[in-house]
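Structure catalogue
Derive tokens from sequence
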Amino acid sequence: MGQGPTITTIAQRAGVSIASVSRVLNGLPTRQETERKVLAAAEELGYVRNAVARSLKSRRTHQVAFAMADVGNPAYLAMLREIQPVLKAAGYRLVLHSTDAVVADEIEVLHSLGERYVDGLIMVPLRVTEAHLAMLASARAPVVIIGSVPEGTPVDNVRADSRTGVRLALDHLHALGRRRIGLVNGPLDTVPGAARGAAYREALGALGLPYDEELVEIGDFYRAEGGRAVATLLDRVPDLDALMCANDLIALGALDVLRAAGRRVPRDVAVVGMDDTDLAAASWPSLSSVSLGSAERGRAAAELLLDRLRHGEREPRLVTVPPHLVVRASTGRAGAEEPRGDAP
């Protein structure tokens, strides 16, 4: 019996390189014309009996992409820890993209869905632009967005409830007797920055506290940038007695700056973060934080995507994960020990 078709014979029949055949058979991005030639040659030679070729012919790669702003952010890692096992159990591999929250990179990820290197995409965009919405409306594969998108956007959507989360934090600080409550936020042109800024103002009003622009500082969603924003705010408002931080990384930067300034936490300044990441419990002092259900959002997104892949067309679904406040030492949990001056 003669030898069956190989990558070499497929390359010869298609008139392309062996490397090009390998890329096609492994589901990697390839020019559509090259892919067409390789699949046609593989079918002529009987290679379609191979499971990989059958998968390519059916336009399924059994891969799903997860695109997030920063692979080092523990909130995204919490999502990833839930997304991966859900997809793996269904026979899918996960491809990761770290976009650094660059809109052009996110648009390129959406555009590349047309190359069919994955069967679907879970994306966490910090900004949602008109370009995002146009690409989502014409996406060539199912997409699930973690974060808020405008009503009517034709994708499945998993959201946090930042509005309630900020209110939980400010209610807690107010109940502790704090009245000079500052906000250290991320950029206001981002979805979370805009939502948390509006929620802060609304929560102050509900508590009967005036909104004071002097108490608000805009930085970025990273520890170092958050620390710089906190330092600026402390210089401007030395009688600050509490900080609401837009995520845990900013809050950790706040703890760094407060410690260096000799301000005791929580006696002088109480601090609350958002996301309730693993770092919150491990910090010194341990950080009170609003859990936005990162793990739950990741799991819900994976389940929505699998349902879409299995059943095809249906109305887009919205899942909102409720927040809850986890109280720890940074706001004076009962029995919590304040850090000494030589604490790490």
DSSP finds 13 helices and twelve strands in the chain. Residues 63-160+293-321 form a domain with the Rossmann fold fold (CATH 3.40.50.2300). Residues 48-52, 334-344 have pLDDT under 50 and may be disordered. The chain has three domains: 7-57, 63-160+293-321, 162-292+327-331.
